[in-house]
Design a protein that fits this description.
It contains six helices and no strands. It is mainly α. The protein has one domain. Helix 2 crosses helix 3. The longest helix has 16 residues.
Length: about 120
């Protein structure tokens, strides 16, 4: 899928607020260096995030989006501890079955490869 197709797919299929939360959490994991996904999948997640970030999540708020924006704008090194804390909070808020179902949905659609964490 092209980047545009991935973004279109996300907007059409990741409609639950928990999908936004899961995508946000994986973005935090990538920024924190704790994501075990392969390089291609790590490139896909920001495309999904950018397509969904204007939508409300169920559990995670705008503070997470502001932190991600700051990290992506070049403040990542200065935000290491804050990114870690928010990642841990996000992972705690979302149950493992919810995250596993989210990733399975992405794999089934061909958005992620089969080796996602």
């Amino acid at each position: 899928m092209s980047p545009e197709q991935i973004a279109d797919w996300a907007r059409a299929h990741l409609t639950d607020p928990l999908d936004v939360d899961c995508t946000t959490t994986v973005m935090l994991k990538i920024l924190d260096g704790k994501c075990k996904m392969g390089p291609r999948d790590k490139d896909v997640i920001p495309l999904l995030y950018d397509a969904l970030r204007g939508r409300p999540g169920r559990l995670l708020g705008e503070d997470m989006h502001r932190l991600i924006a700051r990290a992506r704008a070049g403040e990542r090194d200065a935000l290491v501890a804050e990114i870690y804390e928010h990642r841990v909070l996000a992972e705690t808020a979302i149950s493992r079955p919810v995250m596993k179902a989210y990733k399975a949905c992405l794999r089934e659609a061909g958005v992620l490869g089969t080796g996602a964490d």
